[in-house]
Hints:
The model is unreliable at 175-183 (pLDDT under 50). α5 runs parallel beside α7. The protein is elongated. It contains ten helices and two strands, in the order ααααααααααββ. By secondary structure, it is mostly helical.
Amino acid sequence: MMNLSPSQQQLNSLIEQFKKGQFDEAEKLAVSITKQFPDHQFTWKILGVILGQTGRKAEALNANQKAVVLGPQDALAHNNLATTLKELGKLEEAEASYKQAIVLKPDYALAHNNLATTLKELGKLEEAEASYRQAIVFKPDLLEAHSDLGKLLMKKGQHQEGLNEQIIGDGIINFDLKNGLSI
Length: 183
């Protein structure tokens, strides 16, 4: 009988190379595994991240799309796909994919934060605020969410709460005598 998935040794080696930042070696191994086991979702997911980390967004998009097709219930795969879509400027598609990640894993703080950032770029400030707040509910120590929420609130004129969130987020508020607060 033929194996339908890579050996644990191959997967461990792939994960180890990835964690060490040895992206060239990890990519070669991931490509080799995907050729041998084209339906192995985890390897496509890792390959998508590697390609994204090395600046090959179009290739990353293909790998991330394959990971989602093979694992439609994988919230992380949807988040990865959305991140790549966002980096390619496909904000509406990214929004939909982040929302799917959240449907699959409602307490996924990073997906809420990423969705919020995308919504903010799309000019959907109220929705962005709600998503930042959800991210903070699920991961109160997600400093980026506090900081970005603070900037958004400042933009909306909610200065006191905005300052508080920014202080939590990055502890630094820049003040420019000519232009006022810098956010």
